[in-house]
Structure formats: C-alpha cells, structure tokens
Hints:
Layout (H helix, E strand, L loop, with lengths): L25 H17 L5 H23 L6 H42 L2 E5 L28 E2 L4 E4 L3 E5 L3 E3 L13 E11 L5 E2 L4 E6 L4 E2 L2 E2 L10 E2 L4 E10 L5 E7 L7 E6 L1
Parallel strand pairs: 2-14
Antiparallel strand pairs: 1-3, 3-4, 4-6, 5-6, 6-12, 7-11, 8-9, 8-13, 10-12, 13-14
Helix pairs in contact: 1-2, 1-3, 2-3
Amino acid sequence: xxxxxxxxxxxxxxxxxxxxSPARNGLGTAALVLGIIGTVTxxxxxxxxxxxxxxxxxxxLGLSGRGRAKRGEATNKGATTAGAILGLVAxxxxxxxxxxxxxxxxEAVTEIDKQLSSTAPKDATGGTATKDATGGAATKDGAADASATPVPEVLGADxxxxxxxxxxxxxxxxxVYTPTEASDGHAEGNTAYRVTVVVENxxxxxxxxxxxxxxxxxxxxxxxAGQVHDEGLDGITGAVAPGKRATGTYxxxxxxxxxxxxxxxxxxxDYEAHQWELKL
Length: 280
C-alpha cells in the first residue's frame, strides 16, 4: 500500500523580537551636573541668584528623570535622585546667600548714612544767646531748639556752624590788615583783611585739622581773594582733643572796591564746606 508524499506546510514566519529601546538618561545626567554646580555656587553668597536658578532646574530635571526611571525608560535612577537632592540643597543655600547679601548691603548703607550724617552741619548759632543764625530760639550755650530751620547756605560774621559730631566752627568779622614787608600774597592796590577762625571740639573724638581748607572770594562777582602769608598769621593745624578749641588767623587779599568777603571753610575731607559772608 503506497502513501502519497506529504506536501511541506508553509506558514508565516515567527516575528522577530522587538529591539530594546535605548535608555533615556539625559535628564538625570543634566540634573546631577546642574545640582553639583548649583550647590558649589551656593557657598558664594553674592551668587545666590545663580545657585537658586541652577538648583530649581536641577530639581525639576531630577524629578522628571525619576519618573522615567520608574517607567523603565531610564537606568540612572541614582543619578536623578542625587541631582534632585543637590538641586534642593542649592535652593536652600541660595536662600541663605540672599539673606546674608541683603543683610550686608543694609548694614553698609546704614554705616554710610551714619558717616554722612556725622559730617553734615547740624545747626548754626549766632553770636548772641537769644537767637541762632536760622532765626530759631537758642539756649544760653547757643544750641538751636527743635523748631529751628536748617542751616542757612551763607552765615554772617561770628555765627557758628555745628556739625553732627559736635565740631563747631566760627568765623569772625573781617578787619583791615596791614601786611609787613616780609609778607607774601599781597598785591599793590588791594586791601588785606584779617579773619579769625575758631574750631571747638565739643564731641568725643579727636579732630584732625591738618586737612582743613579755607578759601575766599570778594565782591558780588566772586573774585578769588588770595591768602596772604605773613608773620603772626597762624592757621589751625594739628589735632584738637575733645573739649578743646583751636584758633587760627588768616588774611586775604581783596581787590579794591569790594564790599563783601565770602570765606569758605572745609573742616576736613569728611566734612561739608560752609560759607560766611563778611561785610567790608
């Protein structure tokens, strides 16, 4: 009994296994790098803004990377976790750095304000015990009361300007001065006038007068009146201890016909200049 040969069976081939998708580790790596940079930057208070920005980005990327790792799309779960943690640390350091920076700036501004206020004129007092140069009532020691207006731009003879550190400067009336033959700075045809400057240190710190500066202008046109150097004209020099005063005598060469002499006194580089207008 013969059998017919069987025909081979043809069918669809078995599907090939799908290739594994590559791991998407970019977010975790970026989070780790930015977290490290942000944390290091956070230790520099002035760079708090950069640390905060990098830390925020690192935290967002790290959390996103952890999501990929949970879904099996990434294999660097440890790196993403470390990046997120470092991003959070950078944010904390950024907040601390911002606090320290703003505090330092505030303290610096406060110190500058104190320095400026200590060298600004506080009030001006006249030569009498009843009125000060601002027109307000004054006590017997010449101090103006709280109702007194600010220091006038130009004071008169024998009026006193008082600075916030209690340094007091007074300029006397101008008197005609006859220079000697040994004098320097007097031109023929001009008239020399002598003024006395008194500096009283009523504060608590020693005053150094070596940086004090005087200059004068004459007449309505403000012509420069040069200083006359002569025997017996001794300016204020050296240190003035608290509770002490120093007196200096100066002479200025004034052009003929001038009716006023404006003397400007700058007690030092840290003090505001003030002017006295003296009638001739």
